[in-house]
Each structure stands twice: as structure tokens, then as C-alpha cells.
Amino acid sequence: MLWLRILLCAALSMLLGCSSSHMLTLYNQSIDKKFLASTKVKSPDSRQMPLEKGQRLVIEWDIPSGAFRFNDWDLVATLQFGDRSQEVLRRPLDKDSGSWVLMWKGQEFSRKRGVVSYKIELLREGKIEETFNHQLYCELINLDE
After folding, report:
1. Domain architecture of the chain: domains with CATH
2. What is the C-alpha to C-alpha distance for residues 33 and 47, in angstroms, rounded to an integer?
């Protein structure tokens, strides 16, 4: 019975000592009247009339401070839009944690028909450390080659 308690304590301490290495968090938000706090509290707001519809993608990163070195880390966002176009954006990181907000409003949002799917890669010295894929994301097939 004593060996069972020792085994259970060892297993529990191993489980509690493990931590996830998730360094990316993403939020995909629609911009409409519900986006404004004034709508929820029913207060007058000049921004409600007319409000340009849109979308924003908030990418947050949190790299362990011991692993972060200036100019070693990049974020790469591969965005696929409703008009079947794709855009790849790159941002070098100058601090170990922060956020990157990508926003499309008005005519740009209407023309591109919003972000349908995306892939976000966190690179360290050009090598992928972590990837976040939208559920519908898949690589585009180029038929011109």
C-alpha cells in the first residue's frame, strides 16, 4: 500500500510540473454595432451612425523571457479572404510579449469579403516554434505551375 501512495505522489508531481508551451492567442472579432460598448449599455454614441462594418484579428504572443532575444523572433500571418485572395504579412518582434491587431473596415472589408481562414506562425531564427491554424485553413493549390 505504501508503494501505491509513493507512485501516486510521483505521478501527481510530474503532472503538476508540466506546463504547456502555447505562446500564441488569437481573437477573431466582427466589427458592427454589437462591437461598441455603448450598444450594450444603451447609451448614445456618435460612432454608431453610420458604423463601417469590418473585422479584426488580434494576435497575442507571450515568449518566455529567457528564450527571447531581440531580432530572433517573427510572426507570419497567412490570411485567406472571402474573395479567394491570400495575403502573407510578417512582423519582427521587438519584445517578449505583446499584441498585433489586423483590421479591415468599410470598402476594404467589402471588397475582400472578410478573413475566411488564417495560419499564424511564430518563428525563431527562421524556424517554426509554434503554429496556430484556423479550422478551415488549408494551403492554396496554384494551378499556374
Report:
1. 21-133 (2.60.40)
2. 9
